[in-house]
Design brief:
Blueprint lengths: L4 E2 L3 H4 L3 H6 L10 E6 L2 E14 L12 H6 L6 E12 L4 E4 L14 H7 L7 E5 L5 H4 L15 E5 H8 L7 E2 L5 H13 L3 E4 L4 E3 L2 E5 L8 E7 L2 E5 L9 H4 L11 H17 L3 E3 L8 E7 L2 E6 L2
Length: 310
């Protein structure tokens, strides 16, 4: 039997006029970039825009007794805004990007990374490495621009072989449920075809450069990785989609999310990751956390909570 995986479709990401109007009560802070130092490394987050998501993707069967939690999580209505934060690591010698962003063909509210980088004076050809956390559209599709050219033409692209193998599997589209979500796999194949000559396969424990390595955080997808940055006594982990909501992912990591390919595995990964981040006193960056998307894991009762960098 072919194993099937849930994945949200493009239409679910594009809210209608009524839903967009309803979102006006939940504005996101406007920002171009936010920077933190990790030893002698400079880590900056850039906005790629946001996705309008139906709450039912995350909360299929709402529990009225949890209304306060949903509201704190920004998921009290029918639609919520999920910000997109792309990380740039500046070492003494290189510019390293974590994920490509959404590119020009995902949704109207995404694909802002190129402009954000340009506004910051970043030369795309100066980016020497791009580390891909996983192959969902908002992380991969920005690898090519409007003209189907490589957005970062001089970079080497570091991708977990397990993740690449999943999306390049001829059966990948058939594994997406329901069938109209197969565009994710089709889009991933097209992007991987375009960038394949520049791909270098990596795995957990591999170092990209000194002080920048990979952590296996699968579950959201089959080969999802996070990026660990160490410099001096400082540590920061770029999470990708391992922790996606500033309330639910941290305080209720056992709750399943409809955006995870392997929900049980993803829940176990969240619990393990929260323990690690707290015990190691590491800073974190979350791809979909509220701007500036930089913070820490703190104790809260018998569990954890998210504390944003201020």
């Amino acid at each position: 039997m072919t194993e099937k995986f849930w994945s949200p479709n493009r239409r679910e990401f594009i809210a209608g006029a009524a839903a967009t109007a309803a979102l006006s009560a939940m504005p996101l802070p406007a920002f171009a970039s936010n920077t933190v130092k990790v030893g002698d490394l400079e880590i900056t987050t850039f906005s790629d825009g946001h996705i309008n998501l139906p709450t039912s993707i995350r909360i299929a069967k709402p529990d009225p007794s949890k209304k306060e939690i949903y509201e704190r999580a920004g998921q009290g209505g029918e639609v919520f805004k999920s910000p997109i934060n792309v990380t740039l690591i500046r070492t003494p010698d290189e510019l390293i990007l974590v994920d490509f962003g959404s590119g020009p063909r995902f949704t109207p509210t995404t694909g802002k990374l190129e402009q954000a980088l340009s506004d910051a004076g970043i030369d795309f050809s100066a980016i020497s490495k791009v580390i891909l956390t996983h192959g969902h559209p908002d992380h991969l599709w920005g690898s090519v621009n409007d003209f189907d050219e490589l957005t970062f033409p001089e970079a080497t692209y570091y991708i977990a072989e397990k993740e690449f193998a999943f999306w390049r599997d001829p059966e990948a589209a058939a594994k997406m449920l329901p069938e109209d979500r197969q565009a994710f796999a089709i889009g991933a194949k097209a992007r991987f075809d375009a960038i394949e000559e520049r791909i270098k396969f990596v795995k957990e424990g591999d170092e990209i450069v000194s002080g920048i390595g990979l952590i296996e955080t699968n579950g959201h997808t089959q080969g999802h990785v996070s990026v660990e940055v160490n410099s001096g006594s400082d540590k920061l982990v770029v999470l990708g989609d391992a922790l996606t909501n500033h309330v639910i992912s941290f305080e209720y990591p056992e709750w399943h999310s409809g955006t995870d390919h392997l929900p049980d595995v993803a829940a176990a990964t969240r619990k393990r990751l929260l323990d690690r981040l707290h015990n190691e006193k590491a800073m974190l960056i979350g791809y979909h956390l509220p701007p500036p998307a930089i913070g820490r894991v703190v104790k809260s009762g018998s569990g954890y909570a998210y504390e944003a960098l201020t």
